[in-house]
Specification:
heterodimer, A: 279 residues, 12 helices, 0% strand, B: 311 residues, alpha/beta, Rossmann fold, Alpha-Beta Plaits, 2 domains, 6-stranded mixed β-sheet
Chain lengths: 279, 311
């Protein structure tokens, strides 16, 4: 008689209520990324500017000779600008294969044969990328704010710049939503994560290149709405109450961002299906 | 068949891809137990399964699975069914046990239970020793088994198996069919097995739904479908004149369906009861000697051929 029956048995345990499948996808995706050493190295690098800024805040708070380094609202705006490079690399590293790899392995029909809606699937994938993007934007920026308070030993800076917390939060969430939705939409268009990475880089650099050409011809920044990064910069400056960088009206930049998110949503709606119908 | 006995029903379901209809006004019921969905390639079998899973929205008609309306409760249905797709499918970058446990979690199992069930079903489908290998390194036969494991991990009430023996070698195919048969007959799992292979369906299933060109050609218990309304015999005779044709004409006028298959052997369909006795009586009245008479047992192949209109 066997000690443990290895045959098929009916399951008598409990099951989670419907609607929680996205958390399973998100948890598994986040765990898988943390298991990659190369990615941990990238995350560490993405936090280097945070450590540099921390040293700056320490010096400004404790050394009278370094008072010129005292932070302002623009310091945080600049910090998030610097993080844009890491946002790009993290987006490509984490996001390119999120749906493309599933398409290559025909995994969508496995996912969607479980009690999981297409929206939950996309939301789970979005949560993976958004978590890491927030980890290199919102989290260091907020911790930096806390570091400033700690080193200064008072709340004066925070009281004078109370808008900073909501500004950091609103800007980073807009940035993360746009970037993550765009990457997911591109990822759903192909079965190759490499091709998706190249496509994403193309969208970023090509849109900036077209704007650069138009600027060179017209000597006007009115066409900055064409550039994917320029729209984020323009909105970032509005949110951080900084002078605008381009002549483009900021509502137009915001409209382009919203349009990008909506278009990505439409692409995802059409591409994420349990069965590919070629009519 | 009582409503409670059916695990899936379709009422006047039509599914179109562009201008071509994959399912045409299909009305049928799948009985509890093991049901074979039989038909040639392109008959609409996979489309029907995908429609029942809610992947494809029909242009017309209603469907129910396990008593739940597909249009209104697709998630509740999917939490109670398992699907083994026809094509190669897995979650990339995972070993077998992680993949199957992950599928269990997606189906709502707690993490610990999902992992325990993953180990159990992997042993059950014969992948126990290979469960820590990356799925991408698996052979075709192993990939078929892991697709079955992921469909089973959450203990579904109904399994949809789409061509489960595709690409398997004869030994692997036999083992897969044995698993399917065991699930249906010993483990109490209802299943719908889509296949174009008659022996697979005949070995594993009790009922069959035969499809052809997007319509239902025949449906019912296999044994009942194989029961002819009459009987077919192989017959060899010696006539007084040495000519066969007059006797054949005589049999046809008596309402029998005759086909000469060889030089002197013919297949004779005798409708109704008393087949052999009636044949002997007819032969006797024409002074024909019956030299060979053997009942021809109809196979599922005959049922299938008859259903899709083949000779």
């Amino acid at each position: 008689m066997p000690i443990h029956d290895q045959g098929y048995r009916r399951y008598g345990g409990s099951k989670a209520p419907l609607g929680q499948g996205w958390t399973v996808i998100a948890r598994a995706g986040i765990r898988a990324m943390f298991a990659k050493r190369a990615f941990l190295g990238l995350l560490l690098m993405a936090w280097l500017p945070f450590f540099v800024r921390s040293v700056q805040f320490y010096a400004a708070a404790n050394l009278p000779q370094a008072a010129v380094l005292a932070p302002s609202a623009d310091t945080f705006r600049q910090f998030l600008d610097q993080q844009a490079t890491f946002v790009f690399f993290v987006t490509v590293y984490v996001g390119a294969g999120l749906i493309a790899n599933d398409r290559r392995a025909n995994a969508l029909q496995i996912y969607l044969s479980k009690p999981l809606t297409r929206l939950e699937y996309v939301f789970g994938k979005l949560a993976i990328l958004a978590t890491f993007l927030l980890l290199v934007t919102w989290v260091p920026a907020i911790v930096l704010l806390i570091v400033q308070i700690s080193f200064a030993g008072n709340f004066t800076f925070l009281k004078n710049n109370l808008f900073l917390f909501p500004a950091i939060t609103v800007f980073t969430f807009i940035e993360v939503l746009l970037v993550a939705m765009t990457m997911l939409a591109l990822s759903s268009l192909s079965n190759s994560s490499r091709y998706v990475g190249i496509l994403y880089a193309g969208v970023i650099f090509f849109s900036s290149a077209i704007y650069g050409v138009l600027y060179a011809v017209t000597r006007s920044t009115m066409f900055s709405w064409i550039s994917f990064p320029a729209n984020l910069e323009q909105i970032g400056n509005v949110i951080f109450r900084q002078p605008l960088r381009y002549d483009t009206p900021w509502p137009l930049s915001l409209l382009m961002i919203v349009l990008g998110i909506v278009m990505s949503g439409v692409i995802l709606e059409r591409r994420v299906r349990g069965v590919e119908v070629v009519a | 068949m009582a409503e409670a006995d059916s695990v899936a029903t379709l009422e006047t379901v039509t599914v179109t891809y562009g201008r071509s209809a994959a399912l045409r006004d299909v009305t049928t019921k799948f009985a509890a137990g093991a049901v074979g969905l039989l038909g040639p390639n392109g008959a609409g079998k996979s489309t029907m399964i995908k429609a029942l899973l809610g992947f494809i929205v029909p242009t017309h008609g209603r469907m129910q699975v396990l008593g739940l309306d597909v249009a209104q409760a697709p998630l509740a249905i999917r939490s109670r069914v398992g699907y083994m797709p026809e094509s190669d499918a897995h979650i990339p970058g995972m070993n077998a046990v992680s993949f199957v446990a992950y599928c269990g979690e997606l189906a709502g199992l707690p993490r610990v239970d999902a992992m325990q069930r993953a180990h159990e079903v992997l042993f059950y489908v014969g992948l126990g020793e290979a469960r820590y290998r990356n799925v991408e390194t698996y052979s075709t036969g192993m990939k078929q088994r892991i697709k079955l494991a992921q469909a089973l991990v959450h203990d579904p009430d109904l399994l949809f198996l789409d061509e489960p023996t595709n690409g398997m070698d004869p030994k692997g195919r036999d083992e897969m069919l044995e698993l399917v048969r065991d699930l249906a007959h010993n483990k109490g799992v209802n299943l719908i097995l889509s296949s174009h292979l008659l022996p697979d369906v005949e070995y594993t299933c009790d009922h069959v739904v035969v499809m052809d060109k997007g319509t239902i050609a025949a449906a019912g218990p296999i044994d009942a479908l194989k029961q002819p309304r009459g009987r077919v015999y192989e017959l060899r005779v010696k006539t007084p004149t040495g000519e066969l044709e007059p006797f054949l004409a005589y049999l046809r006028t008596a309402g029998l369906d005759c086909h000469a298959t060889d030089e002197d052997v013919m297949r004779v369909f005798v409708p109704g009861d008393g087949g052999a006795r009636r044949l002997f009586a007819l032969a006797s009245s024409e002074r024909v000697q019956v030299r060979h008479l053997r009942p021809s047992v109809p196979t599922l192949e005959d049922v299938f051929a008859h259903a899709v209109g083949e000779e």
